Amino acid sequence: MADAATLPSADRDLLARFLHGRDVACPGCGYNLRDLPGDRCPECGQEIVLHLQLAEPRQAALLTGLIGLSAGAGLNGLLIIYYLIISLFMRFGSPDNRFLWTIGIGLAVHGIALAGWLRYWRRIRRLRGGSRWLLALACCVMPLVDIVIFSLSIR
After folding, report:
1. Domain map of the chain by residue range?
2. Is the whole model's pTM more than 0.85, yes or no?
3. Does 103 score more than 90 pLDDT?
4. % pLDDT > 90, the chain
5. Average pLDDT of 35-48?
6. CA dist., res. 67 & res. 148, Å (int)
7. CA 33 vs CA 50, 70, 115: distances in Å
8. Which DSSP string corresponds to 34-68?
9. Are 82 and 95 in contact (CB under 8 A)?
């Protein structure tokens, strides 16, 4: 195992070999780092490091679930605004509490699911592909179920 004092020079050597004869833009300022002699960008002075990352970060299912939950929360939020406008400004008869309860519960369910989705983003990302997509599908089905429940409640 390499000594901790030799790692920085080894990292600099790997960086120098990677940039030798290769046009690579500085992530900070866009300066061409071809044949960079050190580990700092000469233009902006930021330290440059060579690191590994996933080629495809597996976020398609995560974003699909996020969009599904956001659509449900947005629909219920807009319906609450509609309810407030109608009840405050139009004053058409007595307010329908069943309408308000339906969209309020829908907004709460979607809001809690959205908060959980964001809270456990990294854990969901580490799941197997089928499990991630199954969760994303459930997130997309939730607004559809919400629409059906809403439609049945306003009859």
Report:
1. 1-52, 60-153
2. no
3. yes
4. 60
5. 90
6. 19
7. 12, 41, 41
8. TT-SSSB-TTT--B-------SS---HHHHHHHHH
9. no
